[in-house]
């Protein structure tokens, strides 16, 4: 095997979050190592042929994250983060979504190609405390690692910070036949990367930590575990890495510069595997890698770092030799033919802090910023104009679709973004071109996935029109209604309501 090994992070170094004045470096853990939590797989309430029924409850909880007081947390069918939802291509999923939280939330399926705005679960599909909503959708997409998170604008960031983020895995026949690790919890491991700051009595305090460019904390939290270790009992381990952080970019590498192979990113396998020693993952992206521990012996330890801070320790146990090889070809990327009648659509991300915008505007839930026909492919050109102090990298995300990255400033995209994606990072002044094609109709959001930028208005929405049903009307919520709900639930007057994203509109003298 003479595959080249990529040894750098590919992105514009000058724009790394480390150069931001507000950057909060991770600190090495000081508490004793804990076994890495593996979220349980959600079991359906019932299965009838291809119809699968689940109840998903957003709930409050308490978790012993650090010695001393338990931390108050939120989660899905779990006190923190959530169960892992495993869906299969072709099945119809029926969800009973229950809100046991003290405030309004939504259930957004990041990465699922399902209609919007209700099934998609963005801000137009609120579930109020004590209430429930039922949604049904059919899974029709390739195997991938996706996720569920709250999306009640402008308080998405705070709810994710409380813990509302869970993994969803789509399986299909093609991926199931490939010789890849697939034993969940044993050699197929979710790795949800987040960071938090613990305040008095081990509690989180989102408002105290608020930064309009994204909230960070110095403590790495992986699958809701502080200072985790994982017992390696197979030579090869597949890691489904999800950057579930509000703001942090993670720059991953192993001790000894152990190479690893990326097999998937966001919405599909990669056409060909790519081998790295260093890998950057920005907010909301997923990267699946296979790590071969064949050169190690029982008792050895291999550490995964972000920059120079250890985040997960792999403790090598006994394992049987594994001579399988990762196939040189993993996935046929579907051919998207650009519709000659659709011009290139430009998207400009601008500003930092409170000034963030898309195409010179802040998000308005009632405004449709763009319309596009379903089933037709169009090139979108995404750029970022901001270059203050080196600028920053904005992870650009679209709901309801899986796109193909075709170029970065006219050059080939990075070798690990050759599959289907829903989030792509934009370096300052870079033009990233993507092929966009929606297979489902509805109103969908597109935005920066630094979640505070999204709440702060760096977000817009598209209406995707099914030519067979061009007149469908969608009921769109508005910020004011959601904010009134938050005020009522928190027992404060509207003028005393604080939601992170509101600041960004206020400071710009704008109304929500
Ligand atoms: Cu992770 Cu608007 O989405
Ligand atoms: Cu999304
Ligand atoms: Cu951004």
Automatic annotation (TrEMBL):
Record domain Plastocyanin-like: where: 58-173, 338-465
MF terms (GO), sorted A to Z: copper ion binding; oxidoreductase activity
GO biological process: cell division
Origin superkingdom: Bacteria
A Pfam family it matches: Cu-oxidase_2
Keywords: Cell cycle, Cell division, Metal-binding, Oxidoreductase
PANTHER family in alphabetical order: BILIRUBIN OXIDASE, CUPREDOXIN SUPERFAMILY PROTEIN
Similarity field: Belongs to the multicopper oxidase family.
Record-given protein name: Cell division protein
Organism name: Lacticaseibacillus thailandensis DSM 22698 = JCM 13996
